[in-house]
Amino acid sequence: MRKKISLIGAGQIGGTLAHLIALKELADVVLFDVAEGLAKGKALDIAQSSGVSGFNSSIIGTNNYEDIKNSDVIIITAGVPRKPGMNRDDLLEINLKIIKQVAEGIKKNSPNSFIICITNPLDVIVMALQKYSNLPTSMIVGMAGILDTSRFKYFLSQELKISINKINSLVLGGHGDTMVPSLNHTIIDGKSLTQYVKDKKISQEKLDSIIDRTRKGGAEIVKLLEKGSAFYAPAASGVDMAESYIKDLKKTLPCAAHLNGEYNVKGLYVGVPVVIGKNGVEKILELELNDQEIDNFKKSVKAVDELFNLAKKIDPKL
After folding, report:
1. What is the DSSP pairing of strand 140-142 with strand 114-117?
2. Which pLDDT belongs to residue 88?
3. Second label for 180, Cα 20 to 30 Å away, from 7, 48, 169, 213?
């Protein structure tokens, strides 16, 4: 029997997720949105492409939470995207209310699913989702590090004129301005990025500008689009996580995961490398970080903690 993936939110990311999942025949898809016509229209449009693309996955659109029953995976994109000039914190109040309803819908209809959250501000929203739903922390993760890592790899490949397939990297920490690219754990064609700087194949100045561009990757796209935010790369990242869970691939992926003492952090969701398999987050990998990376990671954790404290002021039930 084919697996089932429910997508909460039929905006740009939701629609792209549905299309990618169908093309891969990873699962049957339920596209949910409070705007019923939006979910049904996109589902119908994608379904009508099956005759061309040759996939057999079924896709339905709905505004009824009962249709997500017994999902293997649920990917959440519901919420308001960032608008130009809006920072992630501005989104918090609006998206907390939305995520509370989503948590109730999931808890009631599909509490055993593996849940991937993409809604921003990511680290805090995924934490709120877990608190509202009270579902196991190993089954709720946030998609952030994969996207940040992919952006970082792309910018490096363009600068160094090297195939992106020859670059392995991991970005840690909170999603956004405090993310921490791990330079020692970035391997390009067999050599660490630190070595590339030493060998003068890339200047420290150029590398710093690439790191800065990665941090502001989402904002750059928001500014260019004017009406909307990134959706192709975030959707591809979400599918990567879902596939690792459904196929038990045990891939090591940087995700916002619940830490219980790892990296000296307790009770917070932070971006770290995790192994995703059929049991959800099966392992959290603790990388050896240098002093600067530890310092940057602590700053990132502090930013997540401060934003969660702000969320608790908005909703004391957190």
Report:
1. parallel
2. 64
3. 7
